[in-house]
Predict the 3D structure of the following.
Amino acid sequence: MIDILDQQIKKGAEIIKNGGIVAFPTETVYGLGANAFDEQAIRKIFEIKGRPQDNPLIVHISRKDDIYIVATNIPQKAFELIENFWPGPLTLVMKKNPVVPDVVSAGLDTVAVRMPAHPVALKLIDYVGFPIAAPSANPSGKPSPTKPEHIKMYFGDKVFVIEGQCQLGIESTVIDITSDPPVVLRPGGLELEKIKDVLGNIIEFSSEKLSEKPKSPGVKYTHYKPDLFLILLRKRDDIEKISSFIKDHTRMIFVMTYDFDVSFQNQFRQKFYSLQVDFIFAGSDEREIAKNLFDILITKTTGYDLMIFEGVNEQGIGKGIMNRLKKAADVIV
Ligand code: AMP
Ligand code: MG
């Protein structure tokens, strides 16, 4: 089994070395990777994803010291974060080493860098012998893939996929370390509380208050949209607020968080008796919910017109989960 996986990683490395692109597992989500120094290959990633040209990619390295290959003027605070959290779900935006092609950073003079905590990703980067630039392996605007079958659904046989598991299920936390205090560009798999413990002060902008010209280009685009109408229900007690979205014959899937309370399900069925509704459970804590989040948004939509997804507490990785759900939702109540 291990040998089969090793062969897949070797095959993936050959494809990348020959200018191709490969989907590979990381501990956050699946990445769609190419040699960070191969401009033509990077362009293929933008093309197949339909990714806007001004949305830069994350460069993945397999050794901490490789940071010097891609970044310059690295501040002391970056080393403190690296010491504590790499390998792991933390992406650092730093001054770009001019040798990194501009297409990777979408023309910015900064570059986003991460060392993933996944043995397959690390081995792939090692076999390739270059850093791998990779966004998430989904068509632009769609939920990020966390399983090989998601990539098959999205791209069929157009992309070679290395098998694996994404233990976390949401993308990395992105920190701009060129500013002082550092700025959170995207909450994610590493809890902001842990980063504050190391750095002291960091600046957070809530996604609702983002300016017209965000510092991280990716945040301005449509994101994570499932194939049906999605309502984010912050509190279970507020079901009254969803009445106006329910018509006769609406086929609904209700995603419950923390507690798969059957008496609530019965009450709900009685209240909205004209409705066809199925209930599913996303998980009893934020870790489990993060792991299931994108799988639910990608695979639990068939046969339904409407999904209600219950919110989670905005602390720890709950902040990252709510960031994704708010972007994915058509309506937040
Ligand atoms: P993805 O890999 O698809 O999760 O997207 C990478 C995220 O990192 C996007 O939100 C990008 O906008 C962001 N990003 C990548 N490079 C930079 C950079 N140099 N400055 C700011 N944000 C970046
Ligand atoms: Mg993405």
